[in-house]
Structures are given as C-alpha cells and as structure tokens.
Design goal:
Elements lengths: L3 E2 L5 H10 L6 H10 L14 H10 E2 L4 E7 L5 E6 L5 E8 L4 E4 L3 E3 L14 E4 L2 H17 L4 E6 L9 H12 L11 E5 L3 H9 L5 E5 L5 H7 L2 H4 L2 H15 L4 E5 L8 H11 L5 E5 L14 H13 L3 E5 L12 H7 L3
Parallel strand pairs: 1-2, 6-9, 9-10, 10-11, 11-12, 12-13, 13-14
Antiparallel strand pairs: 3-4, 4-5, 5-6, 7-8
Helix pairs in contact: 1-2, 4-5, 6-9, 10-11
C-alpha cells in the first residue's frame, strides 16, 4: 500500500484508519495536536501514543518535511533559508528582524507561472504547489529560530516564491492551522497574503470571509507599464482588479495594501505617482513602497533616494497612506528566488 501524506489526511480518514486498527477515535485528535499544535516532524515524537500505534502510522503515512539546504544570514540579521523538499525541489523563506519581533516571508509554490519581469522566481518556471504542511513548516521553523534569538515571531507574509491565490486551498488550509486554537494560535490579523491580482480569487477570499490582510503587487497603475512588468495584467487588467478589490473591501471591511516596487526610469516618475494616486481613489488602500534589490544580470535598477522621496511626497500630497519598506539582506541573495535558483543550478 502506498503511503499517504499525514498532513494531507482529513481527520475523518485518520479516525477511520485508527478504528480499523483497534484504536480509539480520540487518538486522531491527539495526532492532529502533535502535528499542527506542537509542529512535530515524525511519529516517534508523539510520546503519548504507544509504540505499536506509532509503528502503524509510520507504515501507512509519511511527513513531507523540509530540510535546510542552504542558509544565508545578512549583517542586519535577515536570514534566508533555501528548503529542500521531499522530492528534491527547493523553496525559500526569509526571517526578517524588526523592533523586538520577527517577520517570516514564506513561499507557496515551487517556482511561479506568472513570470513577473523583475522577479528571480519567474526564471525557475513553475514546478508545483506547496502542500499545507510545507507552508506550515516554514512558519514553525521561523518560530523556533526567533525563539532561539530570544524573540518571537510576530508576523507572517506570503510574499515568497509563487502566487498564493493559485494555490488557494493549501494556503488557506495552512493559515487555518496557523491561526486555529488547536494549531499555532496566531492572530489572522498578523498574516498578510500577497497576490499579483487574480480577481476571481480575490472575490473568493471575500466570500470566504477571511480575516487576514490582503496585499496586491501592483507596481504600476499605467496599463502598458504594468503589462510590461507583469504579464498577468494582460489576463486580468487593472479595471477588473479594481472591481474585485471594491468587492473585497465591501464584504470584509479590510483595507488592502498595494505593493509598489520602485524601478529606476520605469515606474518612478511624478506622472507615475499621479496615475497611482488616481487609481487608489477607488477604494481605501495603503501603499507600501519597496526598494529594489539590484540583481546580477537584471536590466532593472534601484531608484535613487531623491527620486523615491519625490514620488512619496507626491502621493502624500494626495492624502495617500504611504509606508516605505526598506530593503534588507542586501549582502545576501535577498531577491525572491535567487538562492533557490543557485541551488537548482548546483552553485
């Protein structure tokens, strides 16, 4: 009999398995607590189960564990980990220090099919979706790393490799276990899911009444510029995206955030800022300005500080809520997908 992924196994199926082997149904709840609350990675760690039960489980199920393939730590404390998956693929997570807390940036897919021009992940192509367990593990390991540094994990952002809304079920399942009282019990308000803008999935989030935060990788409010940077704009134009965001705000009462990566000479002019301000007037929104990490071989360049400040000043003069996300980890492979790409190539 082929083994099944224990973290993909529904509770009722696990209960049926246990009962068919002469065990009590309540054992399923114990097992789920070990997996999702205590974050164990083997049946041997489930100390309140008999050796016989653990052996039966190990014979029928497996864990799709992550293994640290390479770790890079920057001088500012930012740590990027390339995780090797059970099938030999690689994904990344980044632990980012803040004031008395840490944020983890997690991946949702191996590679990405959207092909955003500025993103190193796009060069990997799309391999597969991550399971809920593989997403969950990135958070568990980040929690442990923060604790080892005498701090806590405060926030989770789905801004790593992949498009989270194209792995909708597994992402929401992982978030359920992260926020559930029988899981990691983290507040959904400390979680942000970032999307390139898939209107029907944004509407689905609204209909599912999610409580986490939504960020949209906008990067340009001019259709031609956005299509050049993000091919997804050709399938889901800005007007469709705007309608889905209006629906999301109406249904959830949550103010989304626009992520805007400043690229020198491409989307950082005063006219670009004016177009962005006009687009943002359609719904309540916050704007995160992101500094570009220069990538070897890339045609894109970091916007000079003076131009960045002028761009922000214009938005603020139009009563926009603007934050600047300072670039961290500059002395490591900080751009999304860089480290996994190197490991894939055997570098």
């Amino acid at each position: 009999m082929e083994k099944k992924n224990i973290r993909n196994t529904p509770p009722e199926e696990l209960t049926e398995f246990l009962c068919s082997h002469g065990e009590k149904a309540f054992r399923a709840k114990q097992i789920y607590q070990w997996i999702w609350q205590k974050g164990v990675h083997s049946f041997d760690e489930m100390s309140n189960l008999s050796k016989g039960v653990r052996e039966q489980l190990a014979a029928a199920f497996y864990f799709d564990n992550l293994r640290a393939g390479r770790i890079q730590t920057a001088t500012d404390g930012t740590t990027k980990t390339a995780w090797e998956l059970h099938d030999g693929q690689f994904v990344e997570s980044v632990l980012i220090p803040g004031k008395d807390k840490y944020t983890v940036c997690v991946s949702s897919q191996v590679g990405c099919q959207l092909g955003c021009r500025f993103c190193a992940t796009g060069t990997l192509g799309f391999k597969r979706n991550l399971s809920a367990g593989e997403i969950f593990d990135q958070v568990v390991f980040a929690q442990k790393a923060a604790e080892e540094r005498g701090s806590t994990l405060s926030n989770i952002v789905f801004m790593g490799m992949g498009e989270p809304l194209l792995n909708y079920t597994n992402v929401l399942t992982a978030i359920k276990h992260i926020t559930d009282e029988n899981g990691l019990a983290m507040s959904p308000y400390r979680i942000t899911v970032s999307t390139a803008g898939i209107p029907e999935k944004i509407r689905q989030l609204a209909d599912d009444e999610v409580r986490f935060n939504l960020a949209v990788s906008l990067h340009a409010a001019k259709p031609d510029t956005r299509s050049r940077l993000m091919p997804v704009n050709q399938a889901y134009p800005l007007d469709q995206l705007a309608e889905s965001l209006k629906y999301f705000v109406e249904k959830t009462g949550t103010r989304p955030t626009f992520e805007y990566l400043l690229l020198n000479g491409i989307n950082d002019s005063t006219e670009d800022a004016r177009t962005l301000a006009t687009y943002c007037k359609q719904f309540p929104v916050k704007i995160n300005i992101i500094e570009y990490n220069n990538v070897e071989g890339s045609a894109f360049k970091h916007t000079p500080d003076k131009q960045r400040d002028a761009f922000i000043h214009f938005l603020e003069s139009r009563n926009m809520i603007v934050n600047v996300r300072r670039s961290k980890g500059k002395d490591i492979d900080a751009a999304c997908g860089q480290l996994a790409n190197k490991l894939k190539k055997g570098e």
